[in-house]
Amino acid sequence: MNNPEFQEGQNLAQQGRMLLKQISPDFLDPAHEWRRFFAETWGTFLLVLVAAGGGVVAAKSGGSVTLSMQVTAPGLMVMAIIYFMGTVSGAHLNPAVTLAFAVRRNFPWRRVPGYVLAQLLGGIAAAEFLHLLFGTAGALGATLPGSGIGNGTALAMETVLTAGLVNTILGTASGARNIGTNGAIAVGGYIILAGLWSAPISGASMNPVRSFAPDLVRGDLGTTWIYLVGPVLGALIGVAFEWILKGKPTVAGAIAAQGSIDSDDSSSAGA
Q1: How far apart are CA 109 and CA 97, in angstroms?
Q2: SS (H, E, C) 176-215
Q3: Beta strands in 26-142 (DSSP E)
Q4: Which terminus of the chain has fewer CB atoms gathered within 10 Å of its CB, N or C?
């Protein structure tokens, strides 16, 4: 039978069977959803702690932490997080990434609110922790348009940078490489590279929570909209480009986006 529609249906069914085989019973069990929420909360806490904390410590130390150090640290932290918890939740750490995975149909929409809430909790907790220790030093590590840079320029920069980040994440995830060496290096490396050349323009946030949390805690939301709108637009552009580059979503992408903890790993995680 050479019916293209029949063949496509068969291919989709086979992909579905592959996905069910590769995802553990623990992941499919809603009772374990808290593991993913905890992973996203803790991972985002660590990311915002390092990303915002770089500016705070630079201010408190009289510049001992240079700009290059500040933009390198978050990339290295993301690498570490992907290694230690990517298999649990997919290590999104960013509402723009969660949105991109959902629009790409690698991630169920019903899980999006929980992930975003977990990311918000983690980010705000990190900003509150920094505030408790250091007050509002260094504007609490806020991402702001650079000196002489207009809001429109900063918005355009955040949009383009996030599109590139999402393409990097979706591109490595499509081959099940987001959970592992290649994905960690590619995503962390992109974050470092983007920050090294564009941080003086927009702060190279690419993450609504990373920017919103310090702004909320320090009580200044004047430019926060840039870092909400830019990453969302960039995420949608990145998804469109991924479709142009690779076509339909893959089973491997779904596994990377949702995590792939097996029963042995999950059973040893709890006391």
Answers
A1: 13
A2: CCCCCHHHHHHHHHHHHHHHHHHHHHHCCCCCHHHHHHHH
A3: none
A4: C
Report how far residue 170's alpha carbon sits from residue 74's, in angstroms, rounded to the nearest whole number. Answer: 19
pLDDT in tens, 47-59: 999 999 999 999 9
Distances (CA, A) of 177 to 102, 166, 185, 207, 209: 18, 14, 10, 21, 25
- Domains annotated for the chain, with CATH where assigned, are 28-260 (1.20.1080.10)
Tokens 């960690």 locate to 184
Distance CA 200, CA 194 (A): 11
Q: Are 74 and 47 in contact (CB under 8 A)?
A: yes
State the average pLDDT over residues 214-222: 97
Rounded to whole angstroms, the Cα distance separating 108 from 75 reads 27
Distances (CA, A) of 262 to 39, 202, 268: 16, 40, 10
Q: What is the CA radius of gyration of the chain?
A: 19
The Cβ of residue 29 has, within 10 Å, a number of other Cβ atoms equal to: 10
Distance CA 201, CA 154 (A): 6
Q: Are 111 and 227 in contact (CB under 8 A)?
A: no
Neighbouring C-alpha atoms within 13 Å toward the C-beta of 30: 4
Question: CA-CA distance, 101 to 121, in Å (whole number)?
Answer: 20
